[in-house]
Q: What sequence folds into this?
């Protein structure tokens, strides 16, 4: 988080707003056995750029930050829940990385907490319907976007292929990047655009922009020793594809969203 | 299912329609590794009465069956996904009942399949929005109902307390019945009422009716040897409470929904 705030003022400020929104909604209340771990996992999850990208896309197309904040918060919840389920001991995933810190909860609690957080993400989204804004059709469209990004053709598919990859039964690294980080960031950008009132053309441009950002991030996080040059080439190409999508928008307005092209470890 | 069809013509016919609806939407398509287990678990799950109760509530308040069929299908998906996650080996649940048949999938696949089915349930619901029916606000309200029934104050809470109960660390059997079967059936009836255009008073009456049906079912399924008399008393009391809720409605119309009072093992 320290690195994020220094290098990424836009991401850091939006993420702080998302946290405020989530803290208003996720109280530590009875049953504590259920809400305490939920609180813990939501607020200890390493932030993903996808929620802030959702807000940036909304603002880029002329929407107000408030219109996207519930969806951005829901994206953070989806991300946190997916990480919990990914790290459960029963996932057939070879145990390569030790978990940071002591495991505070049993796998049974972690499984249920993930289920609870997914459900709460959809609840937050559905409750963001506001008759004064007449936004219910947009909110429903965003729910469909999010279920697809998280479901059997999105995150679930990517997680399955990642297990095969880690078990050396697959070499589809690109496929995993597309489905996991790629699809999740594409969803974030598309949802923000929808909520900000974008045209179909703008939505699809921002979806492709998000896909590039997510895949770049996955590549630069997963770079293997000896592969640095190749990865740099891929990232360079993705960055130029991403910038092409932004050409459509007014240059002065695209500054915030283009900052996500620097959210990389490389 | 054979017993269900004979004794419960209403339940059986509605369940058959729900299956048709689900078969149209859940195809066995690529990636097969993800969709094949999804198909298997959705169509092999023991049917719960809650989805048909949703349709019955919709019809009771003057709605058409079509208005509730997507929500009923989503309820079946939620039920199937909850059962998968409940039976995962990492749930801290003491292994009392052997699983029926050989375990066909690894725990990792089952975990991901459950996640995929939950997401697909919300997708089906959100897609049931129909501008011609102008039903988007009702659909959003139903999504909130369902996330609450499945989430940290509903099913997740019940599953957590059920583990404590099975480990003899708790004696709150009633609490588990309320949160799991009770809350799920209450949600089914309330969702059907909302989609059928019920008044707030009708929604709450049908919610309480569904709660009674669910708790009766949990009690009669969980009856322990030596406890038959006590359970019979509880079930009798719940049935009379449930019938009281139905008095509000026109007698001739309440026949289908009252048939759920006989969906019991006792």
A:
């Amino acid at each position: 988080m320290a690195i994020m705030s220094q290098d990424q003022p836009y991401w850091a400020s939006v993420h702080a707003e998302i946290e405020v929104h989530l803290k208003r909604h996720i109280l530590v209340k009875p049953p504590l056995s259920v809400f305490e771990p939920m609180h813990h996992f939501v607020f200890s999850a390493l932030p993903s750029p996808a929620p802030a990208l959702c807000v940036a896309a909304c603002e880029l197309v002329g929407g107000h930050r408030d219109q996207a904040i519930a969806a951005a918060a829901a994206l953070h919840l989806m991300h946190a829940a997916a990480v919990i389920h990914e790290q459960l001991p029963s996932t057939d995933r070879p145990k390569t990385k030790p978990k940071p810190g002591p495991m505070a909860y049993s796998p049974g609690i972690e499984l249920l907490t993930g289920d609870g957080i997914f459900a709460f993400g959809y609840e937050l989204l559905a409750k963001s319907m506001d008759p004064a804004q007449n936004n219910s059709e947009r909110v429903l469209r965003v729910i469909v976007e999010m279920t697809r990004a998280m479901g059997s053709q999105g995150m679930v598919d990517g997680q399955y292929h990642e297990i095969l990859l880690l078990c050396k039964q697959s070499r589809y690294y690109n496929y995993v990047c597309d489905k996991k980080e790629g699809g999740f960031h594409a969803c974030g950008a598309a949802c923000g655009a929808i909520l900000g009132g974008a045209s179909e053309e703008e939505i699809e441009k921002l979806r492709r922009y998000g896909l590039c950002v997510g895949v770049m991030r996955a590549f630069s996080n997963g770079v293997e020793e000896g592969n640095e040059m190749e990865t740099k080439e891929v990232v360079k190409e993705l960055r130029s594809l991403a910038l092409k999508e932004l050409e459509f928008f007014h240059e002065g307005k695209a500054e915030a969203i283009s900052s996500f092209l620097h959210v990389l470890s490389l």
In short: Chain A is about 70% helix and 0% strand. Chain A touches chain B through 53 residues (CB under 8 Å). The two ends of chain A are 17 Å apart (CA to CA).
